[in-house]
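Illustration 12: Acetyl-CoA C-acetyltransferase.
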Amino acid sequence: MPEAYIVAAVRTAGGKRGGRLSGWHPVDLAAKVLNELVDRSGIDPAQIDDVIMGCVGQAGEQSTNVARNAVLASKLPESVPGTSVDRQCGSSQQALHFAAQAVMSGTMDVVIAAGVESMSRVPMGSPSILPRKNGMGYYMSPAIHDRYPDVPDFSQFMGAEMVAKKYGLDKEALDEYAYRSHQRAIAATRDGHFSEEILPLEVRAADGSAVTAGNEMHAVDEGIRFDATVEGIGSVKLLQEGGVITAANASQICDGATGVMVVSERALKAHGLQPLARIHHMSVLGHDPVIMLEAPIPATLRALQKAGMKIDDIDLFEVNEAFAPIPLAWLQATGADPERLNVNGGAIALGHPLGASGTKLMTTLLHALKRRNKRYGLQTMCEGGGMANVTIVERL
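Figure caption equivalent — predicted structure in token form:
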């Protein structure tokens, strides 16, 4: 079977809600990533066959096919098409899978997989906010209610609480994990580990104009709490009485854009491209939509089986920190080495820009493999509706 290779990977630094990226229209933010991927690869942008872009909040400024709009806002020619993907938090990871599948099928040679989410400008849940009248306007249809009669809503917050309870994870363990996420992100930032993967951008005011004072640039993940303490994290109020989840041991709302360029072996040779990694395995799995966030566990175990690998064959893991119970339960169930997991911190410290997080994690994983001179990396994340993508890459 033909192979698929990643030749460039980049992300913006995460922006806090109402923070340093909130003045950027998400289309223009995504366009900057597309331009940077072209610049880093050195390829003629007219050779790009497609742009596949993950985005969860496909409403308002992110509506009407945000991928195509990003192409039109970039320096890519009009001949380059674009399509938008929603697999909830795994949207841009799925975009990567679609890009690799297109290349491996032989129908395309150069595809950009990307993601964008401005959670400041398009608040979480915006696509589902419609007038509800006479039972209309709600995503859960009568047939879904018939299948899940005791479930008024599929809630990720409740899913996180259920995972914590199932795996015996108390609030102290979750808060300690959250603190570790910040400590690892702080160390990675101070040691310059993110410098190669981050595209610095000017800070823009709410009206979109540049903030010119001191030529200020956004190049550091804004959500990292450099003064974080376990005590401070532990003092944050519970989201549910009697529960264990707080805003401090869950992922941060975040603005950002990310992307990777995927090419065929034919394109490598034709354009003189240098591969960062080869796609070794891709899969996606559906699971219980009520507990919802447990899906990365069976998805990882199945992926390893399909790839003919064991957990210890993988050098580094990226498991999205949507809520602290998810990576902790994943570690418990898979037996993976915690020192190989989210080595530069995760979404609790760095932010979770929903549809952009898939290629964000992949970008960080690829650069971490290179810096540590390691071979195999595995990425997975929980997704709304009870799903999980798994991607295994081999660094070259």
